Amino acid sequence: MIRILIVEDDENIAKTIEASLSIVGYESDLCDNGNDAVRMACDNPYDLILLDVMLPGMDGFEVIREIRHREIPVIFITARQDVTDRVKGLRLGAEDYLVKPFEVIELLARVDVVLRRAKKGETKLVFRDIVLDLDRHEAEQAGENVVLTPREFDLLAFFMKNVDIAISRERLLAAVWGYAFEGETRTVDVHVQQLRKKLKLKNFLVTVPKIGYRLENR
Fold it and tell me: What is the pTM of this model?
């Protein structure tokens, strides 16, 4: 299980990040100051740290200096937009720099990229006889290659990361297509139908009335 330390002194932002990470199955701990962040990072085997720059006690730059020996990937999250600060953070060893305000989907995408770069994220997803290789962007069923469009692949990956969870069409659009969609959600239905057909998922990728879809492991 991926475990992430969230270092953020704004409680509302910290809780939002925590809830967002839980959507994709990541566990997280919260910390609201630099001194505790150093202690927690040294005492626990975190896979990633989301680190605010402006913190009580040590600031984010001081924190990353203190924990550099732990070799834990760090993404800075800050309201500062100054290029000098970004360069400073990256030179100190941060993997990425995310400026507030940001969309949840952007946060999750950057977390996924950094974890993969550190070889700690999932590189393969398995559901029954279906295997998705996320690095190679290839799908197999019962050992046979299945040709999926890029959007079909991403949609299936999202379902496979959220097995047995009812997911609305709007959430699918935001997670896979990358935007908040207003109006017609038919595009999701079309892609779901294609997945059912190509991968024989009629009895597993089920419609949830008035909500959306659920990939059932039964």
Answer: 0.60
